[in-house]
Amino acid sequence: MDLSSAVSLTASTLRRRPADLLPFYLLGTAVPVIARMGLFVALAGTYLHYELTGRLADARRALADLDLTPPGTQDPEAVQAWAETVGPALEPLASPTAVLLVTAGTAATVVLALLTYAAVSAGQMSAVAGRVRGGRGLTAGIAGVRERWLTFLGLYVAEFLLWVGVSLLAALAVGGAFLVNPFLGAAVALFALLVGLVVLLLVRAVFAFAPAAVVVDETGVVGALEGAGGFIRSNPVDALAYLVVAVGVLVAISSAASALAFLGGGAVVALASAVVAAPALDLLKTALYGDFRGAVAPVEPVEVRLRDQFLGGVRRGWRELTAFVRRTPGLHAVAVLVGVGFGAVGWLAADPFVGAVTTSIEGRLVGHLPPTAALNFFGNNWSVAMATSFAGVALVVPALSSIAFNGVALGATAALEENLAALLAFVAPHGILEIPALFISGALGIHLGIVSWRAFRGGLSRDAFADALENAFWVLMGIGLLIAVAAAIEGFVSPYYWRPFL
């Protein structure tokens, strides 16, 4: 299969039943939400430690008489003077127990991120292989998470160790040569740089195709590396073409992210990268490797126009959203209670800092550009909705933590706002859509957590679990519609209409 045919197969596979593949890539956006549970637990433990030992009360009393607002200047002496004033008041919080808890929480977060990423990647590539073979992607992905997560973890660890090993060997060779003679050291450094780059490029090429080898050949780490190496030797042109495309996509995404970040739209690029570029590249390399192994089923081109398919998807998303809301009132009540309850916690937690630390909606709107702001609001809020929803797959708790985290942040921001009436006026027009959309995403996360628990216990078949993931995809499309309208209002209406009155 040449690159052109593989690209056509990739496009047709993505367009034909996207809900049978993309949920695993939406799950990828939830990895940080799942992983940060380790740090959240550590912070909660630290807070309890401060409260039980009286350290938090001591810090509050010390901070009550201080001006906590940083100096409005970059003058190092002013910043240092402010830090020297505030620092002693924070000394009660410098507890060895707190440091230990935060260190352990950070380590747990790193480990959770690595394990979760390996499991999600196994599901993604297994779903891709299932679609390339002509089967159902989601059921193949669910099976792949259970059966292949350890293999994917082994691949990531092996590549990391190889990169570290090559770098250390080069550093040792250069260091030894410099000890003998500076000119010899310079020559060895140049040689090591050139050879090291070639070796690392070959390592990356092999490990780029190794995940496809795992799911196509149904093999382990060693077999995957052998299969990927065999593919590159037998099809160097196809392998090189894929690598050129992958690098080109990476450069294009980085360039777009840099340009749109300046304009405020970087979140949309990150979202497109996670749920469009990533599955497309995975499909492309799996199609090339699968053809090498004779494991690619033909895919007919999609005859429906892209515009008609998009509009049909929006309509279906809205139908699934309204149906989900109607049939799960209890889950929505839980999401609202958690969000509002932790919003009150954020308000109360910020109370000691009211007057000393302030936020200003009017200050945040300085330099507001409606089109780019609307794009940024849309990308950020839909990303949060996706992550909250699919984080629930990890047995509900991460979804609840995401709702709670956002509630605390909003409650604290409102408590510290210097013009609360202006903040409420700003939030009202878009908030009537945006806030319910985020609560729906929380309810969807709770729903997926219940479903995953039932599947984990064996009370739900893989097909039923796959149906739930597919339905969640369409509900999220409906949530995206709400958030898009809310973002347009937030960008073009919310910042302006209230100014003549307040």
Radius of gyration: 26 Å
For the largest beta-sheet, the strand count, sense and barrel status come to:
none
**Can you give the helix content as a percent range?**
over 70%
Structural class: mainly alpha
Mean pLDDT: 91
Which stretches of 5+ consecutive residues score pLDDT under 50? none
How much of the residues is beta strand, in percent? under 5%
Helices, by number, come to: 19
Terminal Cα span:
65 Å
Overall geometry comes to: globular
Number of domains: 2
Helix/strand order: HHHHHHHHHHHHHHHHHHH
Number of strands: 0
Describe this structure in words.
InterPro entries: SpoIIM-like. Keywords: Membrane, Transmembrane, Transmembrane helix. By secondary structure, the protein is an all-alpha fold. It folds into 2 domains: 3-39 and 99-292, no CATH class; 304-492, no CATH class. It is built from 19 helices and no strands.
Protein traits:
502 residues, 19 helices, mainly alpha
Short précis:
The protein is mainly α and 502 residues long.
Topology:
Elements: H1 3-15, H2 23-28, H3 31-35, H4 37-53, H5 55-64, H6 76-86, H7 96-132, H8 137-180, H9 182-217, H10 221-234, H11 236-263, H12 266-292, H13 306-327, H14 329-350, H15 361-364, H16 370-391, H17 397-416, H18 420-456, H19 462-492
Helix pairs in contact: 1-12, 4-7, 7-8, 7-9, 7-12, 8-9, 8-19, 9-10, 9-12, 10-11, 11-12, 12-16, 13-19, 14-17, 14-18, 16-17, 16-18, 16-19, 17-18, 18-19
